[in-house]
Amino acid sequence: MYSKFALPCALIALATAGTGCNLIFGIEPGTEATTSPSSTTASTASGDGGSTMVTSGSGGPGGEGGAGGAGGAGGGPPSCAPSRCTAGQCPVTQMAAGFGMNPKGMVVTEDAVLMANGEAIATIPKDGGAARTLPGTLGFGDASWVTYSGGQLSWLNWSNGDVLGISIDPPSTSPIQIAEVPPPEEGAVNPAYGRIASFGDSVYWVTQVPQAVWRAKADGSQRFAEQVASGGTPIGIAVDATHVYWSDILGRQILRTTTDPLGTTAEVFAETNGGPTEVLLANGVVYWVTEDNGAVQSKATDAPLDAPPFTYTVDSRAISKSIAVDDEFVYWTVYTNSEGQGEVRRARIGMGNPITLATGQPYFFEIGVDCGSIYWNVNNLEGDEEAMVLTMPKPSN
Fold this sequence. Notes:
Elements: H1 9-15, E1 22-24, E2 35-36, E3 39-40, E4 51-53, E5 93-94, E6 106-108, E7 112-116, E8 121-125, E9 132-133, E10 143-149, E11 152-157, E12 163-167, E13 176-179, E14 196-199, E15 202-208, E16 211-217, E17 226-230, E18 234-239, E19 243-248, E20 253-258, E21 267-271, E22 276-282, E23 285-290, E24 296-300, E25 310-313, E26 320-325, E27 329-334, E28 342-348, E29 352-360, E30 364-369, E31 373-378, E32 388-393
Parallel strand pairs: 1-4
Antiparallel strand pairs: 2-3, 5-32, 6-7, 7-8, 8-9, 10-11, 11-12, 12-13, 14-15, 15-16, 16-17, 18-19, 19-20, 20-21, 22-23, 23-24, 24-25, 26-27, 27-28, 28-29, 30-31, 31-32
């Protein structure tokens, strides 16, 4: 699938980093390994040369200070069982397997992890039940990136830029065609690594051919998407009640424009330390990661345009891939680090000083959180491997 398209420079570098290996899942140090049909665990002692341990550990690069800083971010459900592990000691478990190939976009709902697996949307129960294809999502092309709002899951088609949706709450088996991207004068629409976001009654997404930002009503009441902006090399996207924000990976900036009325030109919201990819907006703060130098940054939406972002970390040895937040912390995945491994890292909101929560085989990809757990998938961009989703409890400290 990934060989169909030419990728931006930063994505080419990302796709060629590291090599695959088997994964053995860590549990708390000093405990005995157990196995079950839905999970595999092992102690955190050193493995043999053919496998890489997933472990919990501290350390990681320190954070950098900055102005225009970050505020709080929305968390999961208000009640949650307290964690019994501390940072550096939490077990990592594989969720149910057998749900497609090459996972991409992922969202966490109250009961399940919903993930695009290249063919459909997989639903993976949090209670350990078997993963299955979400009814009504198979047969519509290459499901790639997802967004969840107001009980509806919307997803972007990798192959043509179309956006579809289906009701999750209440459940439905009848998807809707939200909108198509008007075909360009030459060539075909290619969203590639362009993400999708939703707010209110609308869905927003980006394509790289043409290089543009789009929106449409989430109820499917319009056939063709409305163009919000054009130009740059858009990847990530986020939206609130007044603005839509997107990352320009080659321009090294976060851009934005108003949503109502729709702005006629984009303004530079933030200059970034590296080429930004995934963007997240929570509680009045925009967060983003960069792939080429491992930066994680944020900026409040009401900060002056000339205010610099807050920088949590810059790590040229790491490829920061995906980002999530709760009320206290920012979490992100590292696709590969200097040792060719994947990582889950976190930092306290507005303070920096990142630590590493989990380390394992390379290609840690999309990440999500709820009130008590962290979830992430593994995707080798150059391979064709079975989808894998890992989870660990949030540390108690």
